[in-house]
Fold this sequence. Notes:
Keywords: DNA-binding, Phosphoprotein, Transcription, Transcription regulation. It comes from Streptomyces hyderabadensis. This protein is an alpha/beta fold. The chain contains eleven helices and six strands. The chain has helices at about 10-25, 35-45, 60-70, 90-95, 110-120, 130-140, 145-155, 160-170, 175-185, 185-200, 205-215; strands spanning about 1-5, 25-35, 50-55, 75-80, 100-105, 125. The protein has a six-stranded parallel β-sheet with strand order 2-1-3-4-5-6, sandwiched between helices. It is globular.
Amino acid sequence: MIRVLLADDEAMVRAGVRAILASGGESEVVAEAGDGREAVELALAHRPDVALLDIRMPRLDGIAAAAEIRRATPRTAVAMLTTFSEQAYVSRALSAGATGFLLKSGDPYELMAGVRAVAEGAAFLSPKVARYVVEDLGRGAGGGRLAREERARLRVGRLSPREREVLGLVGAGLSNPEIAARLHLVEGTVKAYVSAVLDRLEVRNRVQAAIVAYEAGLVETDV
């Protein structure tokens, strides 16, 4: 079972997320917090596999809480619960160590898949918010959307066909075991491919690789 810490200042939201995760049979909410400071304290007490954090919370917002949780309990993965109006926070959340972005109003199966992905060390960007994530990360990087997409395609052009295939699956939020099953490879081979992809793209982690995958058109982002 994936042990989840759930933090949101709205009790109804927490109840809904808890029910969705329970219905999947893979995750259990081991602690709930109504604000960011309480989330950090509960993360230290319970050491969950995943901290699922609302962005806007009293006392300490979700992004600041994410940074503290990642410092204090580095084995806890962090995913942010977002809305369409909060894409401007994404780059800050990435800097704080978040590896998942899940839409509050998204499909329940998407929520379960996202929690599973980040628990397994993968990155997960909700398909419904991915294009907003890409646009936010691209601000200030020079050039418009078309220029960013062209740069991403050039970077992806360094990869072999198999590496591009792996990158697309990383962008879709699949974990190494899931990629191995999809491509009929052993997990060790997938790990080697992912490492090579990160090196050739000159990115630090799977989240940044996923962004390149989206910008290069390797992942579907239509809503």
